[in-house]
Amino acid sequence: MLVNAIGRAVPALLALLLGAALSLPASAAPARNAKAAPGDCAACHKAEKVLPAGHPATKGMKLDACAQCHAPKSEQALGGKLPGMHLHQLRGIGCAQCHGDLKKPTEVAHDKCMSCHDTAKLVEKTANVKPKNPHTSPHYGKDADCNLCHHQHAKSENYCNQCHKFEFKVP
After folding, report:
1. pLDDT tens-digit readout, 94-103
2. Are 95 and 35 in contact (CB under 8 A)?
3. How do residues 70-107 score in pLDDT, each as one tens digit?
4. pLDDT in tens, 59-70
5. Is 43 helix (H, G, I), strand (E, B) or coil?
6. Is 156:88 a contact under the CB 8 Å cutoff?
7. Which ranges of the chain would DSSP assign to H, the alpha helix?
8. What is the rounded CA–CA span in Å between residue 59 and residue 123?
9. Which residues contact 105 (CB under 8 A, 6 or more apart)?
């Protein structure tokens, strides 16, 4: 009897969630534009204001130019404030370089991330993070899937906080 009740509840819940997702305003999910130039916020966000008032124009600007004001490890650093895809795009790394054929994009596997991001260097870079180096997990070692924390098309999260209370800043 419980199995039948759950079997009836799951489709109803899915329909409710799907209905809610479809009723989101268009600004909640900007259109992705695989051909957007670095810094061209309007290519995806259209008229939505995503930069603060008085911010200089960014169209054509790459990450090194952004870093003149947004220095890493400063209060103005971009890490943790932008989805990973924005940081990749500002480095001139387009969608196809990770996803392949854009008519049938593939999910990006952990190995693809590691083709550019060296695990040993990441472990070394975060060696002094307290209370524990997030790239040497007692659960995953040095092989955790990057996408557990570093989301590319959404705000990143501290995956460890599902069980722990670490104050890691996740770019």
Report:
1. 899 999 888 8
2. no
3. 998 888 988 878 888 999 999 989 899 999 888 888 88
4. 999 999 999 999
5. helix
6. no
7. 2-22, 42-45, 63-66, 84-90, 95-99, 110-114, 119-125
8. 34
9. 95, 99
